[in-house]
Structures are given as C-alpha cells and as structure tokens.
Amino acid sequence: MSKHLLQDQGLWREGALINGEWVTETAHGTYDVRNPANGELLARLPRCQKEETVRAIESADAAFRKWRHTTAKQRAEIINRWYQLMVQHKEDLAKIITLEEGKPLSEARGEMDYASSFVQWFAEEAKRVRGDVIPAPKVTQHIVALKQPVGVCAAITPWNFPAAMITRKAAPALAAGCSIVVKPASQTPMTAFALGELAIRAGIPAGVFNVLSGNDTRIIGGLLTSHQLVRKVTFTGSTEVGRVLLRQSAETIKKCSMELGGNAPCIVFDDANLDLAVEGVLAAKYRNTGQSCIAANRVLVQDNIYDALAERLAERTRAFKVGNGLEEGVQIGPMIDEAAVAKVEEHLANAIAGGAKILAGGRRHALGGAFFEPTVVAGVSRDMTIAREETFGPVMPLIRFKTDAEAIEMANDTEFGLASYLYSENASRIWRTAEALESGMVGINTGLISTEVAPFGGVKQSGLGREGSHYGIDEFLEIKYMCWDGLRPAGAL
C-alpha cells in the first residue's frame, strides 16, 4: 500500500477532520482516490454531505469564539509549530502529493517548500496586524480603527497544488484569528488530511482547522457558500465555478477571494536574452505538466527571432523525461485524468486544422493512461481555441508578432488577467509593456513568480483579492471604526 512509502505512516489519514476528530464513516458511502500515474487505488474515503458539512461549520464557529481571543503572539507560536512540522515531514508530504496528483517528486518537494513558506510568513504576520488612530474633527473625540477577524472561513481548493493552495489560505486565516473549513479537491484530499494531522500535532485547537472529504462538491460547496455562520469564502479554481460560488455567496453577502482561470501570455521580444528566455518559457509552461493557473498558455514571439526560438524550445521539449513522478529523473508526470488529456487533444486538433504545425510531441505518450507528450506547436493564430482558452496541459503554442503594440494588444485580448511574462533587455520597453499588460502579476525575464512575500492574484475574470505578502492577511480581517466622544480636551486639564 502507498502509505508504506512514508516514514511516518500516521500522516496517511483516510477520513475527514471535523472538530479535531477523524471521521472515517458517513451514511453516504465512499469514493475512491487513485494515482493518476497508474490508476492504483490509494484510498477509499467517506463521502461528506450536508450533515458533516454543517457539523464542521458549527464546530468552526464554536472554536472561532475562543481562537479569536488568543493573543497574536500565541497564534504565531502555534502556527510556527505547524510550519516546523511541515519542514520536518517534507519528504513524506512530497510523496503524498506525487502519489495523488502525479507531479515529479522534485516538484512536489518544491511545492512543500512553497506551501510551508506561507505558514512561516503568516505566523510572523499575525503579530503585525495593526489598526489606526485617526485625527478626530472634534476636540472631545478619539477615532480608532481596529482590525478584527472576519469569522468562520471556507476554503475550496484545487487538485494541482494540493498543499500550497491550502496553506496560502489557511495560514492567513488562522493568523488573523479566524477558523476554517477546507474542502480539498476530491482527486487530492490526502495531502490536506496530512496537513490536518500536523495541525493537531502543532496544537491548533479542535475546530479551528477542519477538512472535509468527498466528491459531492456541489452539496458541500453550496452549504459553505450559503450557511449564515460562514463569513468568508476563498476559492482557487476555474472562472466558471468561481462565478457560481460568487452568486451563491451573494445571498448572505460573504467576503470572497477568488483566484480563477488564466490565459497567461509570455512575450519574447527580439532584444531578449534567448538563453534566459528559453529557460524561463520552459519553466513557465511545463511546471506541473502545464497544469498551473499561471502557466504560459500563449508564447508570443517577435517575428525576426521566431524560428530560432521555436527550434530551441522544441529541442529542449523533446528531451524531457516523462514518467511516474516517483521515478528518478522524471520531469513530466501524468495529467490528472482522462478528461484533461481529451481537452489537450481537442485544442491541438483545432490548431492543426487551422494550419498550425507540431514541432515536438503532439500525441498521447507511449506510457498510456493520462500521460501526454510535452508539445510545441508553431504557426498558431490568436483565433484558435488553444490561444483563446486555458489548455491546462503540456502544450506550448507559439504565436508570431511584429510590433510591440501588436504584442500588447494580443496579450490583453482575453477575459482573463492573472499572470503575464515578458523577455527583453530594454528597460524602456520592459516598463512600457509591463505597465500596459492587463494582469495582476508580471514576470520580467523570469518564468517563476510565485513567492510568499508577493501579492498573488488577478484582474478581470481571473479573480478578486490577493494571497500572500502583507496584503494577504487583510482578506481575513474586517475594519471596525470606533468613535469615542465626551472626552475632556487635553487643554482643559
């Protein structure tokens, strides 16, 4: 069994965490979690529905009433213990990620470094939540603005980064003094359960951190967005689902953070350092087999370097090692499921029918199952499906442009605005382009932009709010204004 691969088998939990207790059975039956690399059964988990979701919410509310009154220093110390445990068990956590999500073990280790960095960061930020004393219009008044925890939070997280997408939400929530109910993706709940086990060991009180299991996502999500006790909803996933959650949350006027779909352009200008551009484009495209919301979905290349860059990218792409993420040296793992593979095939078929040309890959991998060859496709036009929609797979479409204005116009020609990338050695061109791009984040001469110290989030239909950085904790706080009148003026003493 897969848990025997772990040094600490106590991290392999097969049930929901509600009010500090592991729920291994419900009246609704079970569902299976399988390894996308080989179809192996990893776990048979209980399906949570209305009863379990309401119990988790009510437990979180009861716990919140105590947790909010702990001091910032106390919360910081407990959250920091959670961080230390993540660091201590990094290898086991990485193996769990690879088993259920498929990414290469080296990338899973990197995800754990990234995930734990948010816990460390927000443990420190807990002690830095500050209000204001505002000059009052009357000499008998004092005006104070306080920041207080919003209340019970609900986090609905995706499968592609099963640790980081939880810690990026839970850590600031807990640091602010909130409690949280996490609904991880049904494909990748085992990482969430392991984080829950470490939360218990760290001393996070029962009910402060809850994790639901199950594939009845509509039922669970509907309750999390409609229940009166939930005051904040934070979600990472598709724009389509985000719209539904926002509509549902509107009935009870919840505070919402939405990190939604992307269609990231990567612009390579003719004055770019091509060595740097090749490395950055490959990293931005193929991380997690292209299954990342900030993956370079469209690579826009200036006309006079297009052919040279295309050949270099294709050559490097052909050299990638594809396989089970637990195998040594694997760089590209499986896609999450058959539906994801079918979407990639559909996008490629549309591009080829429109005259695009495959330079590398382009087919299901000989390994079968959910494996797909990393692919470079040239001659892509902006009206093709592969350029209009988020492919979410290991396919790199190359689009030719002539002028800077044309590149910027093409980059912005999308309803999405999460991330953008550009490569140039000209400071004026860099500043002009970066300022004009309609996205929440811009990578300049780099394909790796995610870090706990910077605000992560998008504009347009890519979402609301920011995660990470000193801005991230504000998403879990409310501002209370207090006007204190009837005071004796200082001059009247």
Can you give a write-up of this model?
The chain is α/β, with parallel strands linked by helices and 493 residues long. The chain folds into 2 domains: 2-260 and 458-479, Aldehyde Dehydrogenase, Chain A, domain 1, CATH 3.40.605.10; 264-444, Aldehyde Dehydrogenase, Chain A, domain 2 (3-Layer(aba) Sandwich). The chain is 37% helix and 20% strand. The protein is built from 14 helices and 20 strands. The chain has helices spanning 50-67, 72-88, 90-101, 105-125, 164-176, 190-202, 217-226, 239-250, 274-286, 306-318, 338-353, 385-388, 404-412, 427-436, and strands at 16-18, 21-23, 30-34, 41-46, 132-134, 142-149, 152-156, 180-183, 209-211, 230-236, 255-259, 264-268, 296-302, 357-360, 375-378, 395-401, 419-423, 441-444, 463-464, 477-484. It has a 7-stranded mixed sheet with strand order 14-15-16-13-12-17-18, with helices on both faces. Strands 9-8-7-10-11-19 form a 6-stranded mixed sheet, sandwiched between helices. Helix 2 packs antiparallel against helix 5. It is globular, with a radius of gyration of 24 Å. The chain starts with 15 loop residues before the first strand and ends in a 9-residue tail after the last strand. The mean pLDDT is 97. Keywords: Oxidoreductase. The active site is at residue 259.
